[in-house]
């Protein structure tokens, strides 16, 4: 911090990292951020975590892209082989006109051959307006729905289950509603590291006497505050949750009135649960039946309960089944639509909620309106003044990589995503990117994905642009430019518009507010929310009147489904796609850590954050390390059927003895070299949370 002499202006905006969406006051001197302070946003009430407070200096890193680049004719073969400090071995600088003509020309050439040869990945780190424009560009410009983004790698399975059974893909209550709860479950999430400001509300809840039930294969930090800690076997979640609900049914602890008034399929659910007693499930979920029964009684006894979940729930081939169980648990205990109650998948990226709402999804147009519905498409093409486009669902993230290998996709436009780090079985994804005939990458750094680009379009960081963003709470907030973009870098919406024009589209937007106004025409969720309102204050959707700050809790009087009823969806136990065996005896779980963000492109270029966590690391139980003959700080080789990485070992009693935890932010030991690309059949999300792995002592790399 500093005093008033330290800065010459202040700007209020939103944190670019996690889905909590903390509001921040930036103190700026000579167009550089000097320091920041948390302000009184609806989600953070002045609080910030280490990323929001110290993670802003990446925008000044010398590796920022400042000019458009085109791959040199004499560049070496495509691969992960470009030195970010010396790009000219592979690329040459170009004017914006030349780069945009080249980018659009390559995509148009493939469109002329066969419209569906092109696919696009938009970004959950861009604004709502930029996400909307991206999906519009693919649909209007190429006539199909091959457009997706990182929700496919995080909460697609949660959204799938929520839409199926509740009728809406967003949270039913803000996380701050925990203030009114007396019981809460946090499952498959590590909020102290991944949603740190939300975690402060969870801790305060326990200090007030709220009963917290933490369920995770790893002993996550919130466990210290828990009334019940259920450290179940990795992959045993559906069995545990079915057993949990079995107790509630068997002991008559359910809310019969709520079930009768607001739900359907209850009898089938009750019948299904008969076979899942805690005793019958003890082996598959690894929990003492009495411990599980006690936790179930605690949850059912609460007057108002919330359920929070993260990637540990969603990133499985049974991710949708996991979410179905959590929805069923909330419904049977009457814990939706009242103060202190609700379902809350903790969204990861700062705008993954908004990007999904804006239609950056291959099966949905904005507001989760099906691409298969003729009336829906016609409402959009009327506004867009364009022809109809495909009524078939497009390909998802991992499916697009397979389609490239099958020659069904030959060109891509990738904005702010990094599949060369984030995709499962990433060598397969990298080979796919290398195979593309034309790859347009728009980003702020030479990401691993940009290594494979034919043309790179330098864009603005979040701190350098205008646009709205929607957090995990459904709160729409205004992002404001804090500093100028470096060199010739441009705002993403401007680049999208210029590309669209060169693809023959009649786009005339001159400011994101014009895009927002267009979005409102077909997005009922934005009713009563205007750009001018957002300039003054955050608004939660749905907002019922022009003055309504928005509904923190929804579905108190029924659900947006047939007859207003939510549905119980019984879920059977299925095995992970790959189970440990003699060759690969451990379970690999990947995830994040507090200081690093996703593929590390921002936080590893932030001095403070990288200084705290500078090296790729994995965590194992100390007993396991002893058995392997490795001291903490020594090195391990982790191998799966897809590849190997060598990484520094840490001892952590929170990790189960047969598990390995590996963060995925480090390119030098890329976790996704190891992960399995098997998909959940509904959400099409990969099984990042369970791979069979071999662990051996190794020398330092
Ligand atoms: Fe940013 Fe999330 Fe930390 Fe808030 S909790 S400061 S939004 S990273």
TrEMBL record:
Keywords associated with the record: 4Fe-4S, Iron, Iron-sulfur, Metal-binding, Oxidoreductase, Repeat
The record places domain 4Fe-4S Mo/W bis-MGD-type at 8-63
Question: Protease: is it a keyword of this entry?
Answer: no
Which top-rank group of organisms is this from? Bacteria
Biological process, per Gene Ontology = formate metabolic process; respiratory electron transport chain
> Which GO cellular component terms, listed alphabetically, does the Swiss-Prot or TrEMBL entry include?
membrane; oxidoreductase complex
Give the stretches traversing the membrane.
none
Name a GO molecular-function annotation: formate dehydrogenase (NAD+) activity
Q: Which family does it belong to?
A: In the C-terminal section; belongs to the prokaryotic molybdopterin-containing oxidoreductase family.
Name this protein carries in UniProt: NAD-dependent formate dehydrogenase catalytic subunit /NAD-dependent formate dehydrogenase iron-sulfur protein
Which source organism?
Shimia abyssi
Phylogenetic placement of the source organism: Bacteria, Pseudomonadati, Pseudomonadota, Alphaproteobacteria, Rhodobacterales
